Every structure is written in structure tokens, then in C-alpha cells.
Request: fold
Amino acid sequence: MISGAQLATFVVASMAIIIVPGPSVLFTLARGVAWGRSVAVLTVLGNSIGTLVLSVIVAIGLGPLLAHSKAFAVVLQLIGGAYLLWLGYDALRQRHEHARAMIKREGQRPRNLRVVRQGFTVGILNPKSLVFFAAVFPHFVNRAKGNVTWQLLVFGGLFSVMAFCSDATWGVIAGTAREWLSGSPTRLVVLRTIGACVMMTLGVVILISAVTS
Reply:
């Protein structure tokens, strides 16, 4: 059984990383700016399915290991924190290039199935989600209560639902404000900069938690 305190802290941490304009959010924003709300939401649907599949794979693979090795969980947190720092730095370094790429239209509007499929690919290959599932989820697992794999599955499902709601909101906003966003790459640069700083901050928090645990 997962306690209310576990869920509350998990939701806060999850939202901190979900709202960061990482690969999935940027892809959704790009689709919304280029093609409008419907394409953006379909992109998020595919992305969320991919994220859910990824979380199940991680839960089944890591559950038994985390249940028997605290040292393994600490190592994962160290790796995850360091990688989040790198992702944040890389996002900051390339914020101008990403902004310019996002406002480009890709010819004819893609078909719905293709949009969902592309969103799924981005979701299941998203390094930010993989790092979060493998390195951050273990931080919220209560090993004393047992059934670690089940706890990871619950966290994965909750994360996927939250990600869908958040990313769909980003997509609707981008689709609605297409002209406003595409008319000024500077606005996209600001979004990317804020996201990079949040990502690096979360990486530092995870590293400190791993070292002091």
C-alpha cells in the first residue's frame, strides 16, 4: 500500500519535471505551433502511451533489484541526478537552435495515425522520462512495505496521466497561440531557459538526496 505522504511528494516532484519543456513538451509545442490543437493533442496521446509502456518496462526490470539493494537505488539516483544536470545544461546551450526549429512548418499536415505513432516514438525514447523512472521513482518507494514492482507501476501510471494532462494543456495553448509563439523565437527561448534551469535544479536536489540518504 502506498501512503498519502508518498503520493503527495511524488506528485510534487513529478509536476516539477513534467512541466519542464523537455523533448516531449517541445515536440508537442512544435506540433501545436505548426498544425494546431488537434495535432498537438494527438501527439500527446501517443506520447503518453509511449511513456506508460516505458514506465512498465522500468518497473518490471528494476522492481526486484530495488527491493533487495539500497546501494543500487542510490547509484541510480546519482546517475539520474547527474544526467538531469546534463540535460538541463544541453537545453540551455541549444535554446536558440531549438526555438528556430520549432517554428518551421513541415509541409502537408500529417495523418492522425502518423501523429500518434510519432508521439509514441518520442515518448518511449524520451531520455528525461527514462531517467526519471529509473532514478527518481526509487526515491519514493517504501521498501519496508514490500511489493516494490507494484509501487513502481502505480507511480508510472500516475505519472503518465499527469503528463498527458500537462502536455495536452501545452499543446492546446500552443495551437491557440500559434501566431504569437511563431512570431517571436525569443518567447520560445525564454520557455526553454526556464525549463533548463528547473531541470538542473531537480538534478541537484536528487544528487543531494542520494548523498545524504
The two ends are 23 Å apart (CA to CA). The mean pLDDT is 76. Residues 22-212 form one domain.
